[in-house]
Design goal:
The complex is a heterodimer of chains A (about 425) and B (about 450). With about 425 residues, chain A is of the alpha+beta class. Chain A is about 40% helix and about 20% strand. Chain A has 14 helices and 14 strands. Chain A has a seven-stranded mixed β-sheet, sandwiched between helices. In chain A, strands 10-14-11-13-12 form a five-stranded mixed β-sheet, sandwiched between helices. In chain A, helix 1 crosses helix 6 (about 190-200), helix 3 packs parallel to helix 7 and helix 8 crosses helix 14. Chain B contains 16 helices and twelve strands. In chain B, the strands form two sheets. A seven-stranded mixed β-sheet of chain B has the order 1-2-3-7-4-6-5, sandwiched between helices. Chain B is about 45% helix and about 20% strand. Chain B is globular and about 60 Å long. The chains are: A alpha+beta (about 425), B alpha+beta (about 450).
């Protein structure tokens, strides 16, 4: 490893000795590389800490407060695939590579998966995020495509219920808005708006690149050094403090569903700025939800036999720097019964029998998941990009797993479910 | 024969073929037991069987205890599933686990995992009569299956696909829905899924796939598989018939409404002729068909994506899928209702362009690069490797991904053109918002074809 660029630091995983090379490009881009000849494919992902919730910021160029229309991060993601000469899909396609992107609440990511010419693919991936090719005409054309995408989502009852639930939980925080915005909100997005957001947020200090596959680390770093992504840090997005009680605690909405469904949401009353603490909190919450609603839960099985829930039940959690919430969902022909069952279940004093023995089983399962990640090029690249973007230590998951305690999971239950910051949405058969 | 499609081929107890490939690049392994029967009126009972097998065994009497056992095996996934493929219905039990070599104390994950898989397959929790699942367990899973089937209608893309297949293939074996119907589920008795299990085990055609971090020695692996098969009867191995071609006929059309939705779904069901009876010709034909599908609607570089979505902004998605088992080519589109007619017209136009050879060499090169890349990537995933060799086995097709790559390079422009010319539109199905009278009218009348 000594022959590599001196800027590399090697992080080793404590269980298997697998390694990732960590560096920062000359322009300030965080870079993570898993060079491995075990696989034939290469996956690279470049992620930006810029998502649908980053709507308000002080523009460093004008010095004035800027507020974007909802859906701008997603719109920008679409438009970055526009190139001056050859369409981006075509460019990657000629090399047999797939290229795609995704936008979330706090992050936008671009990635490719290919088996040949990884240097060309990586160069193009970095180039596509560095400079938008926007014209009034191509921005207008995209509006129609995005509008169709949004209408497709709006036809999905789970999507509608989820964002209705977030609108209940949050009065002001932009997490309450759909990631892609609405057909109405995207009408206000134009070339100038997209260029402003790109200039402010698409910067090396706000991004991370991770790549896994049969790659030469020095060549990766050279390409990262040469990338024309603007240097520097982004403007810090401004968020309203929205930690209080939910805006509404219950909404019943009509929708032409074959099966009614319910969603119950729980809002974090406190936020954590430190990424490591946040990661630990997320892990504890995952274990908590799994102990209550996972396949091994006797509580889940009892509720299922009682007809209060069925196998469509789901439980998820998202904990970010400026918001955090847990969501339970289930299809149901008796929505009130299901809502009541879910609300009671989270307060189960016995925590569905979660004890030291159960924790040991959970640890075993997690060790299995941990080892599995090394069998997927894509999984490794995506995971390292997330860790780098969050500012976490590589392979920190194993240590977190070891620090899990029954007490910690119980405390998490009290924090998330105990203070009544919750809301429910019921999707009933009816007109939209 | 000691090898097949790049895998070793061994024979285990009852002469069951074991397709195996030790791949030391992986820290996990995957073993699949698959048994296949002709698709038939028992589809509902077969499709509910996997969830019943997960409700308990003689040793692990309920679902939580089964899930806990998987957790103890370091999160191994040991699960049954069923799937419709062509004119066949497959029951598959999969063991997907981390090799003990990479775990603390090096447990024998393969032996323990296979024992647990065998337990699910051979020792389900049955009623005292021994010929049916316990009534309460059966009723609960029947309720779950009915609920899941009803909920399918809420996923409009999936629903449109199901309804289109039902409409287009009415009266054919391949038109039988994978999960049966709600009526079938209501009429089902507790003994039906158990009868289906026995029917699979006694009359089905079985094979086993093992890949990844498995033992180096073939005999050691076969001994493990023998243990898996120890309590199973020798299956009769009755064949599953191939899907035959149907006579060309005028395009049939159906429009259904989906109250309260905004986006329309269009499914165009195209047919291809039956493959040549000559194996070599059929293989060359298949390569040409896949190249055609890739160029026509196989991805973001395809005609449908570029012309329908990118150039004309007619749809959010538009793609085609070729099914080797049924010789069907499905075009699926999500678009505004007022664009349905234009989408159909453009799709037929693009097909016509390909049929008269109006496509660039560059399009062939891109399709070749895409397919080649996908074939190479098969080796990077155990699930993909297992799926690949399983499919090849069902088609008695011994070619490896490398063989196929070579074969694709031999596909000529003329062969692609011929495939495009042989494709014919059989049925058009649209799911449209309630108030889209004009769209309904346009699709119902057609005209583009």
């Amino acid at each position: 490893m000594s022959s590599h660029d001196a800027r590399f630091e090697i992080a080793r995983d404590p269980l298997l000795g697998e390694q990732v090379l960590c560096a920062t490009s000359r322009t300030g881009l965080r870079v993570r590389i898993v060079p491995t000849d075990r696989f034939q494919q290469t996956t690279a992902i470049v992620s930006f800490a810029y998502g649908s919730t980053d709507l308000g910021f002080d523009d460093p160029q004008t010095g004035s407060r800027h507020t974007s229309p909802e859906g701008v991060a997603h719109y920008l993601e679409h438009k970055l695939f526009e190139a001056e000469d050859l369409h981006v899909f075509e460019r990657f396609g000629r090399r047999g590579a797939d290229v795609n992107a995704m936008t979330g609440f706090t992050k936008t990511s671009y990635y490719f998966i290919g088996v040949e010419q990884w240097t060309d693919n990586l160069g193009d991936l970095l180039a596509l995020t560095a400079k938008p090719h926007l014209t009034d005409e191509n921005v207008e054309k995209e509006r129609g495509i995005i509008a169709q995408e949004l209408r497709m989502y709006e036809d999905n009852p789970d999507y509608r219920a989820f964002f209705e639930l977030l609108r209940c939980l949050y009065a002001e925080h932009p997490v309450r808005d759909p990631v892609g915005g609405t057909v109405e909100s995207i009408q206000a997005i134009d070339v100038a708006e997209l260029l402003t957001c790109h200039r402010v947020f698409y910067r090396t200090g706000n991004a991370a690149l991770a790549i896994a596959g049969p790659v030469d680390p020095d060549a990766v770093l050279e390409l990262a050094d040469a990338a024309t992504l603007p240097e520097g840090d982004p403007a810090r997005a401004i968020f309203p403090e929205d930690l209080g009680p939910p805006a509404r605690d219950r909404v019943d909405m009509g929708f032409p569903v074959a099966r009614p469904r319910v969603m119950v949401g729980f809002k974090e009353a406190s936020l954590l700025d430190d990424p490591e603490q946040r990661a630990m909190r997320s892990l504890e919450t995952r274990v908590l939800l799994d102990s209550l609603f996972g396949a091994s839960s006797s509580l889940r099985e009892r509720l299922r036999r009682e007809g209060a829930i069925d196998d469509s039940v789901s439980a998820s959690y998202l904990g970010e720097r400026t918001f955090g919430f847990g969501v339970l969902g289930c299809e149901s022909d008796e929505p009130e019964k299901t809502i009541e069952a879910l609300r009671s279940a989270v307060l189960d004093p016995d925590l569905a029998g979660f004890d030291e023995e159960a924790l040991e089983r959970v640890r075993r399962k997690m060790i299995g998941q941990y080892v599995r990640q090394f069998d997927s090029v894509r999984g490794m690249a995506f995971a390292h990009a997330d860790v780098a973007l969050e500012g976490l230590r590589p392979f920190g998951g194993l240590d977190r797993m070891r620090r899990l305690t029954v007490e910690g999971v119980r405390r998490r239950r009290d924090e998330l479910f105990g203070d009544g910051s919750r809301a429910a949405v019921c999707v009933l058969r009816g007109d939209r | 024969m000691t090898s097949f499609a790049g895998f070793g081929l061994a024979r285990a107890r009852h002469d069951v073929p074991v397709l195996w490939r030790r791949d030391p690049r992986f820290k996990t392994f995957r073993v699949e037991y698959q048994v296949r029967r002709p698709l038939g009126t028992t589809a509902a009972a077969r499709s509910v069987l996997p969830s019943l097998l997960l409700q308990g065994t003689m040793r692990h009497p309920d679902r939580p205890s089964i899930a806990r056992r998987m957790e103890e095996l370091y999160g191994a996934a040991v699960y049954p599933g069923s799937a419709k493929r062509g004119a066949g219905h497959t029951l598959r039990l999969t063991l997907d686990a981390v090799s003990g070599a990479f775990l603390p104390d090096h447990p024998d994950q393969l032996r323990q995992g296979l024992a647990f898989l065998a337990e699910q397959l051979t020792m389900p929790l049955l009623a005292p009569s021994g010929d049916a699942f316990p009534e309460a367990v059966f009723e609960l899973e029947r309720r779950e299956a009915i609920a899941a089937l009803r909920a399918l209608a809420d996923d409009k893309g999936t629903w449109a696909h199901v309804q289109a297949m039902r409409f287009a293939c009415e009266g054919e074996v391949i038109g039988i829905p994978e999960f049966g119907s709600i009526e079938d589920l209501v009429a089902m008795q507790a003994r039906d899924p158990e009868t289906a299990r026995r029917d699979f085990l006694e009359r089905g055609r079985v094979h086993v796939v093992a890949v990844g971090a498995i033992p180096e020695s073939e005999s050691e692996l076969v001994a493990h598989v023998d243990d898996l098969l120890a309590d199973l009867p020798r299956a009769a191995g009755e064949p599953v018939p191939r899907v035959g071609a149907i006579e060309r006929r005028p395009v049939r059309r159906r429009v259904e409404t989906s109250p309260g939705t905004q986006q329309a779904k269009l499914v165009m069901v195209f047919r291809l002729p039956e493959p040549s009876p000559d194996a070599d010709e059929a293989q060359a034909e298949l390569a040409a068909r896949r190249m055609f599908d890739q160029i026509f609607g196989g991805g973001a570089q395809s005609r449908l994506f570029k012309e329908v979505r990118e150039k004309r902004s007619l749809a959010y998605y538009a793609s085609s899928t070729l099914d080797r088992h049924t010789n069907l080519l499905l075009v699926q589109v999500g678009c505004d209702p007022d664009k349905l007619a234009a989408v159909e017209e453009e799709t037929v136009l693009q097909l016509g362009e390909l049929a008269r050879g109006a496509f660039e060499d560059q399009e062939i090169a891109v399709a070749l690069a895409q397919i080649g890349s996908r074939l190479t990537r098969i080796s990077d995933s155990l699930a993909s490797q297992a799926m690949f060799v399983g499919e090849q086995w069902l088609h008695d097709d011994d070619r490896t991904p490398d063989d196929l790559r070579v074969e694709y390079t031999a596909v000529t422009r003329e062969l692609i053109r011929k495939v495009a010319g042989s494709v014919w539109l059989d049925a058009v199905y649209a799911l449209v918002p309630e108030d889209s009278e004009a769209a309904k009218d346009a699709v119902a009348k057609g005209g583009a074809a």
